[in-house]
Amino acid sequence: MSDGVDTGRRLVVVSNRLPFNVSVENGRLRFHESAGGLVTGLAAYIESRKRARIPSKDHVWVGWPGSTVEGDLRDLLRTEALAQFQSYPVFLSEKEMEHFYLGFCNKTLWPLFHYFTTFTAYDENSWQQYKHVNQVFCETLSQLVRQDDLVWIHDYHLMLLPRLLKARMPELSIGFFLHIPFPSFEVFRLLPARWRREILEGVLGADLIGFHTYEYTHHFLQSVLRILGHEHHMGQIVTSEKVVKVETFPMGIDFSSFVDAVDHPDIQQEAKTLRDTFPQIKIILSVDRLDYSKGIPNRLRGFEIFLEKNARYHGKVVLLMVVVPSRIGVDQYDRMKRQIEELVGKINGRFGRIDWTPIVYQYRYVPFPSLVALYSVADICLVTPLRDGMNLVAKEYVATRKEGTGVLILSEMAGASKELGDALIVNPNNREEIAEAINEALGMGIEEQKKRNELMQRRLRRYNVMRWANDFVKDLMETRELQERMRAKLLSPAIKREMIERYTKSRRRVLFLDYDGTMALLVRHPSLARPDENTLGLLRALSADPKNVPVIISGRDRTTLQAWFGHLPIGLVAEHGLWRKRSGEKWRLSKFCSSEWKTRLLPILEDYADRLPGAAVEEKEYSIAWHYRSADPDQAFLVAAEMTDHLVNLTAKTDLQVLQGSKVIEIRNTGINKGATALDWLLRDHFDFVLAMGDDWTDEDLFRVLPDSAFSIRVGVVNTNARYNLATTHEVIDLLRDFVG
Ligand code: ADQ
Predict the structure, then answer these.
(1) Of the residues 462, 480, 501, which one is the last residue of a structural domain?
(2) Would you state the pLDDT for residue 56?
């Protein structure tokens, strides 16, 4: 599996940063390694694609090169980046980068998504710059992306890009992965309404969207539902254009590179030197980028409490704290650096002795071999972020412990804690808990350490970064297949032409038209869907042709249909077929039904509606509908489920049925449905052109009974018994307009 899926397509990786940084020195370009989980992980995956038994197609990496490059140097950088790193630079000016990266990315999205709401800035200028830079990425990509590429966009810097790119190239396969947490709806909604909508719509431009944990996936789906109103079914969201899949892919590490590195003589030598520096001393390691989300001050205070409470360990432990410089120039980061340094000084001052410094602090980038050496000598690895999308340091430490010893202390707020349950899990806000965990880790027996690590290593070995990326890419291909299957049923221009031709040649036609969601958009309250002059004019035009029998076939009550359409020479069907009316005739009941049951059930339905703000009861002559389109979706889900259960019990052994519709629950007599009514219509006349259009499950009854020659169309890109799908109500209206010429 980790051998790679041969997609036969070129992979285009898009991220804010490229796998290298460039600087301009004396008019010349200099390339440096760039650090971070995203780059390291993806670089390993790309290497594995090349090494695979059947090497995958080419790749190209698109991103910002790390500094402003102007003039002729741009062409040089383009050539060099492609030759050396298979990369393609996106050029941005310093000003663009400042408002985009230091501004919207790092002062708005980063703090908000990590639940640091008080650090979050809401600055319109930065938002405009964020939109602009996403647009610049889109421009650059459209110069080099080919229709059959797989484009994989990464992280919070580029959340608008999927939609921008899709609009340019609708056939392109686009995946999006978020490396940081997606916050709960209550936090995400703090963004101004316009921004949060555009961000969600931006991401939904992708075909596949991935998150590290199930929680983030769930939060995203919730926000999509509450803000854009799209429901999901098993992680699939149907927008007006396509199906989008939302999935969880916990990012792994390049496991074997850590295992293999431990035995390297240079690394062993470095580890030995480290050990010798701290003879008879237990090493606690702490490694992260300088960031307030990583919880470094709390970690230090936790260690301080540990020292306070455990004098027996004085002189016998050391906290090796390595902090990588990051986002230099952002106030919070500069302030935090000072805070950390002061704390280290204070703790060392308080407990240190001439022969012992409790905390050894380094502010620097550590190259890979030194990092492995550090992991391999650390008896404990202390990873206590306040929030972290995943946290790869925790995984890297466990992978490096080849002998199975060592204890990982891990924050429950890191995505990695979902997979590394055998670590000592702590709440990073609770410093006492951190102190106790250090104590527990120091006292843990070798056998237990090995047992815990073995379980974690098994998982990390199997679900490594190659597997993560392969799964994503494979899923992206499958999502496209799913979309294509669904699209195969979309009414193509050719079928539309054939339909119009058949329509023109036919002598007698029946057109069954559902109303809400088919001829009119679904609205928050049913009474707001009154047809406008255009719709009425269209129905009038259809009925003016003597060959046509237009029929509005609806679940609504007959009083409403009569008031809205009674003056037109068309057929009407109310309450899903219970009532029908031919043009110029009176309303007739299809089947004798009782309605006495309503007095018994109405108060129950009203009680439930009282409990759910936004729910409403609609009483029809022979049925009752309980609508909840404008209610809170989560609460509605629970109340609706409870009520359905209650009603199903009450109506058992009666002639009633309880039906779940689109944001509505209906109770009505059995044996009534749109299909039975349509059949009756068909049997009484001879039609050589039959058309039926509808948007929900009640229309499926209709599609099922129609003859093979009929044209049946379901509105929305969903599975259906209809022959074709149309994406929106606008297209329904356009089609009907084409009929009347
Ligand atoms: P980061 O916030 O960068 O990543 P993390 O997952 O810990 O956090 O990755 C850090 C990477 O940098 C690791 O591979 C580590 O080895 C390396 N590193 C750490 N300290 C270093 C040092 N001093 N010198 C050199 N290298 C160092 C974001 C999200 C995370 C998510 C990753 C991947 O914030 O939550 O896990 O992306 O999706």
Answers:
(1) 462
(2) 65
- 374 C-beta closer than 6 A to ligand 1: no
Both tokens of 47, joined, read: 């290497």
Work out the percent of the chain whose per-residue pLDDT is above 90: 75
584 & 643 share domain? no
Residue 2: inside a domain = no
Please tell me the pTM assigned to this model. 0.83
Q: 239 pLDDT exceeds 90?
A: no
Q: Which amino acid residue places its CA nearest to atom 32 of ligand 1?
A: 37
Return phi, psi of residue 329, to 5°: 110, -20
* Cα–Cα distance measured from residue 117 to residue 108, given in angstroms and rounded to the nearest whole number: 9
Predicted pLDDT at 92: 93
For 227, half-sphere exposure in the C-beta direction (CA atoms, 13 angstrom radius) is 25
Look at residue 535 and tell me if it is in a domain: yes
The number of the ligand 1 atom at minimal distance from the alpha carbon of 365 is: 24
Q: What residues make up the domain containing 31?
A: 11-248
Residue of minimum CA distance from atom 31 in ligand 1: 390
Q: Is the CB of 304 under 6 A from ligand 1?
A: no
Percent residues over pLDDT 70 in the chain:
98
pLDDT at 35 over 90: no
Q: How confident is the model at residue 6 (pLDDT cuts 50, 70, 90)?
A: low
Q: Confidence class of residue 57 from pLDDT cuts 50, 70 and 90? A: low
- Residue 720 resides in a domain: yes
Measured in Å, residue 426 CA sits from the centre of ligand 1 at 20
CA dist 237 and 239 (Å) reads 6
Name the one residue in this structure whose structure tokens are 């109405």. 602
The count of domains in the chain is 4
Exposure on the CB side of residue 655, measured as CA atoms within 13 A: 13
Best mutation site among 392, 396, 408, 472 for ligand 1 pocket (most ligand atoms within 8 Å of CB): 392
pLDDT at 2: 44
pLDDT at 143: 92
Q: CATH number for the domain including 623?
A: 3.30.70.1020
Token duo for residue 122 = 């809401």
pLDDT, residue 191, reads: 98
Same-domain check for residues 232 and 311: no
* In-domain check, residue 468: no
Buried b (16+ CB within 10 A) or exposed e, 615-627: bbbbebbbbbbbb
Pocket test for ligand 1, best of 158, 393, 395, 472 (most atoms within 8 A of CB): 393
* Ligand 1 centroid, distance to 396 Cα (angstroms): 10
Q: Is a pLDDT exceeding 50 seen at residue 667? A: yes
Query: Where in the sequence numbering do the catalytic residues fall?
Result: 514
Question: At 317, phi and psi to the nearest 5?
Answer: -130, 155
Classify residue 604 as exposed, middle or buried by CB count within 10 Å of its CB (0-12, 13-18, 19+). Answer: middle
Which pLDDT score, from 0 to 100, does residue 55 have?
Answer: 63
299 lines ligand 1 (CB under 6 A): no
In tens, the pLDDT along 397-441 reads 999 999 999 999 999 999 999 999 999 999 999 999 999 999 999
Query: CB of 371 closer than 6 A to ligand 1?
Result: yes
Strand, coil or helix: what is 121? coil
CA distance 696 to 238: 14
